[in-house]
Amino acid sequence: MAEILGNTKGLKSSVLEALQGIYDLKVDPGQVVSTEIAVQMADISEYLNKEISLYITRAGQILNIAVGSADTVQLPDFNGKRGAARLSGVRCVHTHPGGNSALSGVDYSALKSNRFDAMVTIGVNGPDFQKSVVSIGMLTGLDANKEFTCSEFGPLSLAQAEDFYFPNIVNTLEKILEKEIKGTELIAKQERAMLVSLEWGNAKAAWSAEDSLEELKQLTDTAGAVTVAKFFQSRPKPDPAFFIGRGKVGELALFAQQEGIDLCIFDDELSPAQQRNLEATIGVRILDRTGLILDIFAQRARTNEGKMQVELAQLKYTLPRIGGQGLSLSRLGGGIGTRGPGETKLEVDKRRIRDRIAFIEDNIKKIKSVRDLHRNKRSKQQIPAISLVGYTNTGKSTLLNTLTQSDIYAQDQLFATLDPTTRKLLLPDKREALLTDTVGFIQRLPHQLVAAFKSTLEEVCQADLLLHVIDVSHELYKEQTSAVYEVLKEIGAADKEVITVYNKVDNLPPESELLRRLSKEENAVCISAKQGQGLEELKQLIVDNLKLQSIEAELLFPYNTSAIAAQMHENSTVLQQEYLADGIKLKVRISCELLPQYEKYLLKQ
């Protein structure tokens, strides 16, 4: 028996039989739709007060029949596209209860996205359904932007619709498309995205839903998609199945179909089940905040280590999202319910991901050991290490370029820097320090990234001094500052000595009260990395902080303590060495913590 798709719950058996009977009807290949089929569809549609749709091939065969709601119908999937210059070979016919046959925005969107031969709408007029009218939408070519253009014919009476000999029009249209597309390809368009934010609970968050969604838009822009619309919803708590309310899900599905949306991005982390349910209902790819950030990181990774860290984070994110029935599909554990066929494809996929995760983690450990060796060598040489930390897009890379005369990639975009970069910094006291630019932080930084980038973020944990760069011109700089300290706490660097660097002061009025107040803060400096303003003051502040951690000293070791003198080459930076009559004189730079061990050898200055 032929299947009736769509919203069939609660339909009487007599209605289902009437719908199934339409499958047996034939349409003349030259007709867009027959009067008999149009009348039967209109009759059932008015009785149900629901839209009815069906697909008809060029040979006149009816493929699918589906039932929708009063104002929309979910079109079944079909494999009908036959190349850029060809139409699908299928026309879609559906009813509009209420009598208006004009094509809706959803109709036009479906016509373009599926490249139907025609989109035929029947305006239902009862009780005499012979008086129903028909409108016909067809693709007519491409505009200057390589977007499909459409024309609508009608409204037509059923007799006029039967006389509408559309095969000739279809053939002509395909020739036009072939001519316009020949020698070129349809432009690779930006993905069209809609953003969704849920505000739930009574607790007042540091970030409002609007502010967080605006940041999500910036992330979407960075990833390369174009934001078409934003949606907010407030609920006491997230829906366990769909995260948002079911009514809002239906609204999103209709909007996605009408506006040709490719991607729906949620400003929260979704559970695997929620993501699957939303994709099945809305009909477009669903991405959450974590997935979006991971995608941006994948685009930004340049070094081998960076690529491995991103892949590790993505695999850990993907593993629980592989569809299936979870443990009920497992054949590996043994016991009741697991005997029978061998390993399923789902288990194979999961096992391969776990193996890949183990392989990458092993490689990252090897890279970490090499980095530890370099770090230990720098520590012995008493070369101070300084790390730039801060929210993404606060100007850390620009500051490193300006301080060290470098030319690393620095752009006004989120996560412009992913792989850490280290350069030598010459300080006013003629000492050298190593300045490292690190990945920017963001509110709710995905825990998969924190775990994957742990070895890289250890540069922050092992640094002698942190420069916390803040975009003081951003209206949410306080919230961004709090987000940075949350991440520092998460990676175990909350107790580090920090210089607060208020950047981008050139974007504020010169006599700003905010600048006067910030400039009086302890261990803080206001600068413009782009304009070079305040950098000398920053360098001097760095020197003052590093003086608290190491000191230059002269020591004299009698020859019978030469073994202790040799230790100084491991525990300090030896700046000068002389052999005198009464012993070995060393001028060293040594940690303030270690100096008391050698106090009896100190020369009075």
Task: Note the main attributes of this structure.
605 residues, alpha/beta, Rossmann fold, 5 domains, 7-stranded mixed beta sheet, 6-stranded mixed beta sheet
List how many beta strands DSSP finds.
20
Global mean pLDDT: 82
Low-confidence region ranges:
183-187, 324-343
Q: Estimate what percentage of residues fall within beta strands.
A: 15-25%
Number of helices: 18
The Cα radius of gyration reads 34 Å
Identify the overall geometry: elongated
Structural class: alpha/beta
Distance between the termini: 103 Å
What's the domain count? Answer: 5
| Main β sheet profile | 7 strands, mixed
Roughly what percent helix?
25-40%
Q: Largest sheet, order of strands side by side?
A: 1-3-2-4-5-6-7
Topology overview:
Elements: E1 4-6, H1 13-22, H2 35-48, E2 52-57, E3 62-67, E4 90-96, H3 105-114, E5 119-123, E6 133-142, E7 148-157, H4 158-163, H5 166-181, E8 192-200, H6 209-223, E9 226-235, H7 246-259, E10 263-266, H8 272-282, E11 285-288, H9 289-300, H10 304-318, H11 345-380, E12 385-390, H12 396-404, E13 421-426, E14 432-437, H13 447-452, H14 454-461, E15 465-471, H15 477-490, E16 498-503, H16 513-519, E17 524-526, H17 535-547, E18 550-557, H18 562-571, E19 573-580, E20 583-591
Helix pairs in contact: 1-2, 3-7, 6-9, 9-10, 10-11
